[in-house]
Amino acid sequence: MLPTVSVIVLNYNGLAYMENCFASLSRLDYPPDRLELVLADNGSHDDSVAYVRQHFPQVRIIQFDRNYGFCEGNNRAAAQLSHEFVAFLNSDMRVEAAWLSGLVEAMADEPGVICTASKILNWDGQLMDFGGILLSFLGHGRAEGYHDPNLTAYDQRRYILAPCGGAMLIHRQIFLDIGGFDEAYFAYFEDIDLGWRLWILGYQVVFAPKSICYHIHSGSSSKQSPAKIHYLYERNALYTIIKNYEPAYLERVLSLALLMQFKRTYLYAQQNGLDPQQYRFNVATPAPVSVNKEIYNTRYYLREMWRILKEDGGLALARKVIDELERRRGRPVPTLKEPPKGYSEISQACLVAVNDVMENYGAVLQKRDYIQKHRRRSDKEIFTLIRSLSFDVCFDSPEYRHTQQQLMEHLAIKSLFGEIFNSDVPFAL
């Protein structure tokens, strides 16, 4: 018998998305007596709740007194429900009829699989939005396959490190027992933290290719300022590695993560007009970063293209070109050629993020203590099974790349991770 499922749509002033989202959910092929649709409202002050109440009366509505953010809002909603599983769906999504049955089917009667993740396409269904997770070893996350036009490349059920929190299914009681989404995150990277934690505690996460939905990318997050989003990126990346890495890795990785975060802050400030020489005394000006341009000349790229074409075929070459374009675009961290407005705010947000990690360090260590005491899998086992850990950089700048590569050599990162280290796993925010 199919499990009972509550589908939670968390909302904050999302009136524009209510019709598409709930109209598609109303057409699910899942048995109605095993299904509950829920609108969890984070204190909206538009007419979204009234709209759903009028046009979709079958939907259960849970209203909160204020905006608790993605993490706590979903946790609070899940705690009030009683069905065996909960599915989380962003309001700026629409789903296919088999979306939920695809998530359930992907569990495939494997007792350890208690979480499944949807295949997410962009709104017109022409490009991938989410086909898995890539995790920078310094804590940042990126959707695998983002903007890849080859949709069939993500048609296989497989283990992944983490779901996308905006379209996933999970066993409700286990979700609550292990702490749910970490409420300190508010939003962003909380799904990576959850997935990593699940694997550590002995559970498994699976990608469900038959569960398809469509996403207005950044539909909900576009209302926030870039500086606030950068604050969450930087702070939550540190939270994630502090909590989840085994001691052997954390000792050196945390040092590097903090150093590279300050390097990003420095580069942001420099683009905003910072002149470092006005603060230096009789110290020689640091030599400019030497970038071996011969390595990245036309001959290099032609040779690489021919190698990939011979070894992996035309499809792999096309994906490599797309990934390189994404790397150069630098998502969501902009390249350093044309600084956006508010650059000063972004650099300040980075500093606030590090400060807040320090201020909350005791609470973070308590969470870390729980995770490490209940560890059932080593990080080596996890990242050997799921080749999702990237040692690439997450900021598109020659100076930044040079600094990270130098520090990785000084800290012997390659030998630290051993067989987990794989420089071929791409990463670009």
Short description:
This protein is of the alpha/beta class. The chain has helices spanning about 15-25, 50-55, 70-80, 100-105, 170-175, 190-200, 225-245, 245-270, 300-310, 315-330, 345-360, 360-375, 380-385, 400-410, 415; strands spanning about 5-10, 35-40, 60-65, 85-90, 95, 115-120, 130, 135, 140-145, 160, 165-170, 205-215, 390.
How do the helices and strands line up, and which of them pair or pack?
Layout: E1 5-11, H1 15-25, E2 35-41, H2 48-55, E3 60-63, H3 69-79, E4 85-90, E5 93-95, H4 99-105, E6 113-122, E7 128-130, E8 133-136, E9 141-143, E10 158-159, E11 167-171, H5 172-177, H6 190-200, E12 204-215, H7 226-244, H8 247-271, H9 298-312, H10 314-329, H11 343-359, H12 361-373, H13 379-385, E13 389-390, H14 398-410, H15 413-417
Parallel strand pairs: 1-2, 1-4, 2-3, 6-12, 8-13
Antiparallel strand pairs: 4-11, 5-12, 6-7, 6-11, 8-9, 10-12
Helix pairs in contact: 1-2, 6-7, 7-8, 7-11, 7-12, 8-11, 8-14, 9-10
Please name the defining characteristics of this protein:
429 residues; alpha/beta; Spore Coat Polysaccharide Biosynthesis Protein SpsA, Chain A; 2 domains; 3-stranded mixed sheet; 43% helix; globular
